Amino acid sequence: MEGNIPAYYSNVSNRLFNVLDKVGLREDIRWKRINTMLHTEEIESMVSKVPCHIFGSQAEATTTQGLQSDIDMLACLPDTDVLQSIPSFETSKLTYIMVSDASTPPGYVKLQILDRDSSLPLLDVQSEGRSLDSFGRSVLCNRNFGSWSDTERHGPADKKIIDRSLSIDHVVALRVRFWPCRASHWGNRLYNYPSQENIVLIKQTGALLVPVGHPLSPESHLEWRISISYGEKLLVWQFNSTQYKCYVLLKMIKKHFVQPICGEKALSSYHCKTCVFYALQSTPSSLWQPDNMLLCVELCLRTLCQWVQIGYCPNYFIPEENMFHGKVYGHIQVQLLAVLQDLLRQEGKYFLRLSCDGIGQRLTRLCQISLLDSVNQVKDGVESMAFAVLTLNLEIEVARKMFACQDLDNKISFLTKICCTHTTTDPVLKMFFSSILGSNLASQCLAQDVINQERLNIAHELLALGCLSDVTSGRLKLAAFYLMQDKFVMAENVLHQIQEKYTYLVTDYNMYPREEALCKILENNLSASEFVRQYVAYPVSFCQSEIHCMPKALIMKMFLSRRSHIIDNCPPQCACVDPKVFLHYLKYQCYLRQGKASHKMAALDNMMRVVFYEGLKYRDSALNLLACCLMQEDMYINAWKVFCISIRLHSEHNAAIWQIAFLINDAFLLLRYRQ
Predict the structure, then answer these.
(1) Angle, CA of 586, 587 and 588, to the nearest 5°
(2) Which terminus of the chain is less hemmed in, N or C, by CB atoms within 10 Å?
(3) pLDDT digits over 536-554, tens only?
(4) Which has the closest alpha carbon to 418: 441, 395, 385?
(5) Which residues, at least 6 apart from 376, have a Cβ–Cβ distance to it below 8 Å?
(6) Which residues contact 11 (CB under 8 A, 6 or more apart)?
């Protein structure tokens, strides 16, 4: 499963963990609320003079202001015993004995009243509050059992409204001081959770009998549900911070995404709690850490999804009891399954839409701040790498001049030593260096009368490795290398690959990254180097040692004054061109030499659109390349206009001045030829 976990899960999990702290789920607040409920229990017991206990969300502190959970107050009848078998002694208390038969659903029992004189069940007795079951036994009815005055009845609970946002559900129940036989198998198996000490402690708390029957049972009015609320409360209290917040998140998901579609009864908080218990039992404790928050929530959602598919939600203490019985079936089951599967497909992104307690807005704001920091770091890294690449070009040019009279092997060895000082800390820079070195070696080979094929193959290998440096620069140099050898099909394939990549998130390094590309930084936790390799298009830079692997239109730019870099940020004795312009230029040259007229004109039109309508860093180089293409089409007037635009932009140290001289000469020769 780990291989399918999105890379952003860890980052978003930590931010979600912090957001939940802001809405009142910090550990210190959690225990203050628990202690407050314990004090409330004591006060309520003193006032009502019966043992009172608070269960559910308020007692567990697993609620927030947005969840608006009620207070579940339970009163245990005093001077009453509930036994599992007939006692061998007489008792003065009102005593009930738990009975069940083949028709009694799992998790439920019936109660017979014992005769105080004989300690035997009373038979064939029908009076107020008692009735005969299908076996002719006199059992206690659960209807209207222990009703409170001035309250509204809701199932086994009497609801008392305190204010608009708070109400108290009063339930009168019977205390069972022993562990029920129906749950006798719980804790006997070897599980990761809970510990043996907690199992012993929970079994000592006993159980409660709540006056409510199974919804589909014909004798539901005679049945009492076994509730191990004490044990559940102890288990929740022992949740660590991640387990605790995961449970609250499930309740928020239920309220925001499930209830509006499936209704309130389809999925309850008790289903969510049971799901967490089973998830803890089947996973190592090391999984439940803050940076795995999304993964833990998804694990619970998958468990719920499996239960909905089979229509069976097992009670944690009595697995034979199906808690979906009478609640999740038919169209409700289909709707609930669809909602859960849709949430799983979104891979945690639904939290950005979670309105409960403003979780979605808080998380979005926190992710945007974090994303901005990450983007700024990546953008600084991208710019630093651009500077490092240009520095490599300059040092290679210096090395070329220093070793001009020495053999090529010594020159390459020296270049490698110089450039390794820049590339030891960044593997992507090594790929840039490979491209630069390959282009230098290819230029040296192509300058010779007799080409050394072995060295040319080495240059090709270096240029191919350099394609991994970024999206464009290494690949464009490789395409130019193919064109110099008239390998048009290979050049066309490389250029087509670059064109395809430009349709997906790629951005020129001097432009602010596209929004989708920024999201990739957060989702995949990308470093600056990896972001460059996948999504950034660097300009193509040539130095004088690459003169035989570059277009003639750029050669003259390298022989301008050293002050040219002050104007266009291009290093002295180098020529730089924006990647998208150079892409369309190479496509034009490739199609021109293959005789593909329609493709050639399409490339020229695209080049004109990029030059005049997109933001470029090296606009003078782009205009000069465009003008040279127009000259090749014998469009001298248009080429003249483009050169003039270039000169108006940069009146000094512009190669367009020299290019105009060639244009006049070519136009004059053409005129003479036509005459």
Answers:
(1) 90
(2) C
(3) 788 888 877 788 888 777 7
(4) 395
(5) none
(6) 370, 522, 525
Highest mean pLDDT among 116-125, 515-524, 584-593: 584-593
> Is 303 in contact with 213 (CB distance < 8 Å)?
no
- Give the whole-angstrom CA distance, residue 478 versus residue 484: 10
Burial pattern 535-546, b for ≥16 Cβ within 10 A else e, equals: bbbbbbbbbbbb
Contact 96, 114 (CB under 8 A): yes
- Fill in the amino acid letter for 64: T
* SS3 letters across 372-420: HHHHHHHHHHHHHHHHHHHHHHHHHHHHHHHCCCCCHHHHHHHHHHHHH
Q: Which long-range contacts (CB under 8 A, 24 or more apart) does 584-591 make?
A: 584/610, 585/551, 585/625, 585/626, 585/629, 586/476, 586/479, 586/480, 586/483, 586/491, 586/495, 587/492, 587/495, 587/499, 588/629, 589/483, 589/551, 590/479, 590/483, 590/488, 590/491, 590/492, 590/495
Q: What is the number of H-type helices and E-type strands within the chain?
A: 25, 16
Helix axes 427-447, 453-466, angle to 10 degrees: 150
> Got the DSSP string for 92-127?
SSEEEEEE--TTSPTTEEEEEEBPTTT-SB-BS---
95 pLDDT above the threshold of 90: no
**Fold exhibited by the domain 2-354:** Poly(a)-polymerase, middle domain (1.10.1410)
Query: What burial class does residue 441 get, using C-beta atoms within 10 Å of its C-beta: 0-12 exposed, 13-18 middle, 19+ buried?
Result: buried
How many residues does this entry show for the chain? Answer: 675
Tens digit of each residue's pLDDT (9 = 90 or more) over 229-253: 999 999 999 999 999 999 999 999 9
The amino acid that residue 517 corresponds to is A
Token pair listed for 65: 């202001």
Q: Domain-by-domain residue ranges, the chain?
A: 2-354, 368-550
CB 237 within 8 A of CB 60: yes
Distance of alpha carbon 176 from alpha carbon 199, whole angstroms: 17
The helix/strand/coil state of 91 is coil
Q: Is 495 exposed, middle or buried (0-12, 13-18, 19+ CB in 10 A)?
A: buried
Q: Which residues pair with residue 626 across a beta bridge?
A: none
DSSP 256: I
Do 471 and 534 form a contact (C-beta atoms < 8 A)? yes
3-state secondary structure 334-374: HHHHHHHHHHHHCCCHHHHHCCHHHHHHHHHHHHHHHHHHH
- The DSSP code for 258 is I
